[in-house]
Specification:
Blueprint: H1 6-14, H2 16-22, H3 29-53, H4 58-75, E1 83-84, H5 90-101, H6 105-128, H7 140-163, H8 172-182, H9 188-207, H10 213-228, H11 255-283, H12 290-306, E2 313-314, H13 318-324, H14 331-346, H15 356-370, H16 373-382, H17 384-400, H18 402-422, E3 426-430, E4 439-440, E5 453-458, H19 467-480, E6 486-490, H20 499-514, E7 518-522, H21 526-534, H22 537-541, E8 546-547, H23 550-561
Parallel strand pairs: 5-6, 6-7, 7-8
Antiparallel strand pairs: 1-2, 3-4, 3-5
Length: about 575
């Protein structure tokens, strides 16, 4: 039997594309080819539109669409994921390149290239450190609000182009004020082109997601412009030729000034990529290594930055279309990249008469797709704190700007976790007739308590931020349930304990002892018991006061105190004649 050599296993791990080539099935070819052609129809107009959104020339959007497809085909663990410029990332790029680059497009391109290289380095470093888990810092509600904030920012930024007026800006409120002052000077022809394109885009989206609506709009807008001889702003001819290897050297921005922006982009890009990759892996019964996904994202961004592109992410719009078109492997992306190369070599002049209002409509339609109103409603109905968290992230991104908004969103995620750990659910437990176990008295109002015994549950780890809350809650429960002879902590939910918690437990034990009350534990996890043993708490309280189950703790109390108590399970059963 033939076995793989260790060196081949290493190549397989780092370059999953090699495995795809070796295991490729001939019947997949036609499906990958068709899906690749469909992908080209999406990549060309959206690539140019997202470059405009990033404050860069449209052709750089094609570069940033072509190179990642080739890099991910070699490095990517997902069989069908599409990496390309994204509506959630492009505004972050614009927030970094426009203030530094000013009106000099070549400088903006250089800054965007450095930004992509930094994103690549950060992702590759994170993968080497096994940091794939860090994307969990952005909770789903915060991501929901962040995307809605991005959507509003994108829509407002494209209104001037759609109306043919001056205006816009980096910040939402100043941009709205500028637009409000200029709106009366709108150009009717430009607005007609832009509004018509937007209506077609939204209409075709409702009909079918497989229709290349962006391509339909681009072709239609070019035809109308040429046939009617309309006087509107146009994209102009694209430079002919493939992207060349260029190490960017911006003059107006240092690496230190771009690191924060690159870090924020890296977190968002990998969060989106990881979520999308795992979703499709589950659907296709594949297994995706999150750290390899991070390596692939880093390699794709690094290559993009060296070939005149800008930071990219996974595409939640183009990936589903590729799948629905029959894509089986990353050959779909390779065919898409070859098609983009053909456009750059032979068909750049086709876009000479493409109205910029059409690109604005494409961006606005994409932004509308980022807003999940139904999910906001669901959160409002099922768990309003998460809805408020999403709304806070939305306001932060909208008002403070994309980069600061990202930091605010991540801080909100961490703060929400700390708040829930700081203020967990606290329960006094009792024995409900006919129900196994011991349960919260507020939920089981008919539950009985053992006289003199308080069963207390704290549904969170105990650490420096909530240790005092734990102590106060125990003492408050002791007063409320008086008289209490013994308190047993139902400790299964306690998954962590730090030194502050250990010191608090030592102090609490002394305080309860002074009141004539014993402190005991039940169902404490072995690692936590080991932790308390290291801190000397087990020896101080007594080994015998740590019980395996609440049932054992209750029986020990009843036997030691002789209190009158008969559990419902121990009562003689009665039959009805």
């Amino acid at each position: 039997m033939k076995t793989r050599s260790p060196s081949f296993d290493g190549i397989h791990r780092w370059l999953p594309g090699i495995t795809t080539v070796r295991t490729y099935q001939r019947e997949w070819l036609s499906r990958d080819f068709v899906a690749g052609l469909v992908l080209i129809a999406l990549l060309v107009p959206q690539g140019m539109a997202y470059a405009e959104l990033a404050g860069l020339p449209p052709v750089n959007g094609l570069y940033a669409s072509m190179i990642p497809l080739l890099a991910y085909a070699l490095l990517g663990p997902s069989r069908i994921l599409v990496l390309a410029p994204d509506s959630a990332i492009a505004p972050m790029v614009a927030a970094a390149v426009i203030p530094h680059g000013g009106a000099d497009m070549s400088e903006r391109v250089a800054i965007a290239g450095v930004l992509a290289i930094l994103v690549g380095i950060i992702c590759l470093t994170g993968a080497a450190l096994g940091a794939g888990f860090l994307t969990d810092l952005i909770s789903r509600p915060v991501r929901l609000g962040y995307l809605a904030g991005i959507a509003l920012t994108v829509m407002v930024s494209q209104v001037p182009t759609l109306f043919g007026i001056d205006g816009g800006g980096e910040r939402l409120l100043p941009a709205v004020r500028t637009i409000a002052g200029e709106i009366r000077n709108f150009d009717a022809t430009t607005l007609f082109i832009g509004a018509s394109c937007l209506i077609v885009l939204l209409g075709l989206r409702r009909v079918s997601h497989t229709i290349p609506a962006a391509l339909v709009v681009v072709v239609g807008a070019i035809v109308v412009k040429r046939s009617a001889g309309l006087d509107v702003d146009v994209v102009g001819s694209l430079p002919s030729g493939l992207p060349s290897l260029v190490v960017p050297h911006p003059r107006t921005a240092s690496i230190e000034e771009l690191v924060l922006a690159a870090a924020a982009i890296s977190v968002i890009a990998f969060a989106d990529t990881s979520i999308l990759s795992r979703s499709y892996a589950r659907r296709l019964n594949d297994k995706v290594d999150s750290n390899q996904e991070l390596r692939a994202l880093g390699g794709a961004n690094l290559a993009t930055g060296l070939f005149q592109g800008f930071p990219i992410s996974s595409s939640s719009s183009r990936t589903p279309v590729a799948e629905q078109s029959g894509a089986k492997t990353q050959l779909t992306g390779v065919i898409g990249a070859i098609g983009l190369g053909a456009v750059l070599l032979f068909f750049g002049s086709v876009f000479r008469d493409l109205p910029t209002a059409a690109l604005a409509a494409i961006l606005i339609a994409a932004a509308i797709g980022l807003v999940d109103v139904g999910e906001f409603r669901r959160l409002w109905d099922v768990y309003r704190p998460d809805c408020f968290l999403a709304l806070a992230a939305f306001v932060g991104v909208s008002i403070a700007g994309v980069l600061w908004g990202i930091g605010f969103a991540i801080a909100l995620s961490i703060a929400a976790f700390l708040w829930r750990s700081w203020h967990p659910h606290i329960a006094v437990l009792g024995r409900a007739p006919g129900v196994k176990g011991y349960h919260d008295l507020t939920r089981y109002t008919d539950a009985n308590q053992i006289p003199g015994l308080l069963l207390f549950r704290f549904d969170a780890p105990i650490f420096f931020a909530n240790a005092e809350l734990f102590r106060e809650s125990v003492l408050k429960a002791v007063v409320a349930e008086s008289p209490v002879r013994r308190i047993v902590i139902a400790a299964e939910p306690i998954t962590d304990l730090d030194s502050t918690a250990a010191d608090m437990l030592a102090s609490l034990d002394r305080e309860l002892t002074e009141r004539g009350i014993e402190l005991e534990f039940a169902e404490l996890r072995d690692p936590m018991k080991d932790r308390l043993r290291t801190f000397g708490i087990v020896e101080m309280i007594g080994h015998e006061k740590f019980h395996l189950t609440l049932g054992q703790a209750v029986r020990a109390y009843v036997e030691e105190t002789g209190v009158e108590w008969v559990d419902w399970e121990d009562r003689p059963s009665t039959t009805i004649s």
